[in-house]
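Posting this for the archive.
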Amino acid sequence: MQKPAVVLLSGGLDSATTAAIGRSMGFRLYALSVDYGQRHRFELAAAARVAKALGVARHLVLHTDLAQLGGSALTTDLAVPKDRPMQAGGTHGMAAGIPVTYVPARNTVLLALALAYAETVAAADIFVGVNAVDYSGYPDCRPEFIRAFAQLANLATKAGVEGTHRYAIHTPLIGLSKAEIIRRGAQLGVDFGLTHSCYDPADDGVACGRCDACRLRRQGFAEAGRVDPIPYV
């Protein structure tokens, strides 16, 4: 019998590959997407497409309005940075610091929701596609954050206290480059044409090609020697 696992599914290529890895490990997947007020809401439709393609047991979409808190270009009308160099390049490169696209406490909130979902479906395993290589400087994508959250999960839950099971947070992409993630996903049959990565898409959902997410994605496909199947403005 397949063990259940919860996977956070944003609709991007990282989460799609993470879900495919979980499936390849023999887990029965319960996918969770969160509508948190993001301006790039096209990713939710992409998450639904990916969930269907992967044949998850259930795809749940929860709503929590982080946009009311502000503080991020992904939830407010702040300008999304465009055409930033891949390297630090003084104060403007992608590696120069935490960018304005960082959403305060987002991954903490998303993992907390995934943990609650895991308790209800009796899953001890949670998959999340965080990455500490091509990660745009987000503090909640680092291994030390994941380790701390796993400790919290086993302290703050009924299942953890009663010893029903011990929670494990799986981050299979955390040490991979974008090109390596794309190659791994391709090996597992991920249809990247179903995914969405752009932070600032056009009104019809077409990717801008210039934000950090688009630039990292395009570079990843180029380095992987593959053609990115999605259109760009």
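Strands lie at 4-8, 28-35, 58-63, 125-127, 168-170. The chain is about 35% helix and 10% strand.
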